[in-house]
Amino acid sequence: MNNVEIRDEFWGVIIKDRDMDLYTCRRLLKGEEIEVAFMPDEDDLHEIIENAKEIFARIEENDMAFREYAADEVLNHYREYIVEGTSITKEQIVNRMQLESFSVGSGKSFDLSYHDDGICGNHIIMVFVDEHGEPCGVDIAG
């Protein structure tokens, strides 16, 4: 089966995953390459791609706030995942987290995936952001 490709002026080449109804591309954010995943359900893929441009700008502006929210949640609710010891600070977590990807479906909500730099045993720190651009949850995955 051939890959389906969509060319977009902002995103470049977006490729459909062979096994899932998922489309991805790579994009630089603050000098680092991240993956962007577009997840259409019944919604128009092109509308999701357009909405993701606004979300990308929101991530650029608020990345530090999202990382600070995640660090608070990790320290308050996920301490059992921390392998760096009890003395790690919020600032250390924030500075070591590295955005790997974000995913967007219908609406304005999105999910961020941060590499933990070994803080939580090389798990992914997921940050969920609501339709208003406010972080609303954290999970440790992987």
Description of the structure:
It is built from two helices and eight strands. With 142 residues, it is an alpha+beta fold. A hairpin with a 3-residue loop joins strand 1 (5-8) and strand 2 (12-16). Helix 1 (45-77) packs antiparallel against helix 2 (90-96). The longest helix is centred in the middle third of the chain and has 33 residues, at 45-77. The model has no long low-confidence stretch (mean pLDDT 91).
Question: What is the structure about, briefly put?
Answer:
The protein has helices at residues 45-77, 90-96, and strands at residues 5-8, 12-16, 23-29, 32-38, 98-104, 110-115, 124-129, 135-141.
What level of helicity do the residues show? 25-40%
Can you list the strand order of the major beta sheet? 1-2-3-4-5-6-7-8
Give the oligomeric state. single chain
Q: Strand percentage, roughly?
A: 25-35%
- The low-pLDDT segments are none
Helix-strand topology string: EEEEHHEEEE
Q: How many beta strands in the DSSP annotation?
A: 8
**How does the overall form come out from the CA principal axes?**
elongated
Largest sheet, described in full?
8 strands, mixed
Structural class: alpha+beta
> Gap between N and C termini, in Å?
29 Å
Radius of gyration (CA) equals: 16 Å
Name the average pLDDT.
Answer: 91
User: Number of helical segments?
Assistant: 2
